[in-house]
Amino acid sequence: MTKDERGSIVAEIVQEPLINKALKSRLRTAIAEDRVGTTQLEPVPEPKYWHLKTVLSEALDSEFAVGEILPNERDLAARFGVARATLRQALEQLELEGRLQRRRGVGTTVAPPRMGVAVTTERGSWPGAAGDDWQPADSEPAVPPADVARALGTAPDEPVHTVRRTRVSHGQPVAAELLYVPAASVPDLTAIDAPAGPARARAVLRELSRLDLEGQDRAVELGSARADDAKALDRLPGAPVLVVTTRFLAAGRTAALSMATYRADTCRLTFGDEGAVEIHHGPEQRAS
User: Domain HTH gntR-type, which positions (predicted)?
Assistant: First the structure.
């Protein structure tokens, strides 16, 4: 390489933003290693948004306090020398990891540490049992989504009892649940004078608990908040959430199905020996 060529490369790097310099450096190192035979792998550059996420995370630690509002996207993109599309990818990843929150009418703020609260009931308990911290909000008959109907074994157009419940911890909503209960699971409900709202929700749960619970199975997946869940959780539609689906088994069939949506920026789920799910800040702080 001639002196002029080296000078051209140096000038190119100096003129580019820090985010691009670090990326080019790693890529050139990988290419150099490949040429001298230290590795036979093809050089794969780190995605720009992923490196930006690391740089932003360091800035959050050193420059911003919990609850502080970040500058707008245009200013942040200009500061780090990236396209706004790249910036959005990095911000979305930080939101998913619980470092940032998007708040209605406020903007993007630095998130507080994840709080520690118990998430689900014990495996041998029905929803609404003693020690259950969920608050019944409403109940009404409705035709469930097709996949829920299949899981419950009900006809596609058959209404079931739907129970909405919410969970609040440390003064903020952390989860919203939709519980589907077939009429066959609560056959005596029609004989109960249960008005709409929380009273009817409690009545459905009370009748459901009369069954002998044979077991539960759960699945956890990452999702995006639907409009109704986002409203209940004070999030924006599309915000990252964790969806815990629980089937309650009785009399050899699915007696009820719960779809509980947790704020991904607040909840960190772990499974203990008993199968219970917990949320905690980190390795030193566990939920009781």
Answer: 46-113
